[in-house]
Design a protein that fits this description.
mainly alpha; Tetracycline Repressor, domain 2; 202 residues
Length: 202
């Protein structure tokens, strides 16, 4: 289980060198978690793999919760980059389904890393781990964009949030061996079809 996030805010990299150092840390953490899983990743091992001092690692990431929530944010940022408004004639709900399915396959291809990210995101307190809020916003914006909703209503936002929460639950169940990939696909399509049918631009 990741250590509970500390109260102090993590440092924000400002220079290109600092940003490159932070990216090395995230890559090192992802690589180690892919091989070992969350519990067997030690912060000192991440620092060594990234070639940084342990104090530097803790300055940017005060806990493993901060670290692996940031790793997940980086993954979700890639997902956000794939989200495009619907093409003429394209079913936007089907487009959302396909995006979530592609992302599910990618995440589940590295189950130990996926589990590390999901556990950390669940543990993250929004008041102290800002990346948790960024993950939610990136996911929400990606789905709204694919639905072609430029000015979402409060109900639109709630419906999209429910779809995302369902998706997280399906991923967790798949990682725990409770759902197969075929089950995940079926349930994603069902959840999107039921929930997004009530959106404002349906």
């Amino acid at each position: 289980m990741p250590r509970i996030a500390e109260a102090r805010p993590p440092a924000e990299p400002s220079s290109q060198e600092q940003k490159a150092r932070q990216r090395r840390i995230l890559r090192a953490a992802a690589s180690l978690a892919t091989e070992r899983g969350l519990d067997r990743v030690q912060m000192q091992d991440v620092a060594k793999e990234a070639g940084v001092a342990i104090a530097t690692l803790y300055r940017y990431f005060p806990s493993k919760t901060h670290l692996f929530t940031a790793v997940m944010a980086e993954q979700v940022e890639q997902l956000d980059g794939l989200a495009r408004p619907p093409r003429p004639g394209q079913d936007p709900v089907e487009a959302v389904c396909e995006l979530l399915l592609r992302s599910s396959r990618k995440l589940l291809s590295r189950p130990l890393l996926a589990s590390a990210m999901m556990q950390s995101n669940v543990q993250a307190n929004a008041a102290t781990v800002s990346e948790a809020i960024r993950i939610d916003k990136l996911m929400q914006d990606a789905v709204l964009r694919m639905l072609g909703i430029d000015s979402p209503t409060a109900r639109d936002i709630r419906l999209v949030s429910l779809v995302i929460e369902c998706w997280y639950g399906m991923l967790s169940s798949a990682l725990n061996g409770r759902l197969s990939m075929a089950d995940v696909e079926e349930e994603i399509r069902l959840a999107c079809g039921l929930l997004l049918a009530a959106r404002s631009n349906a």
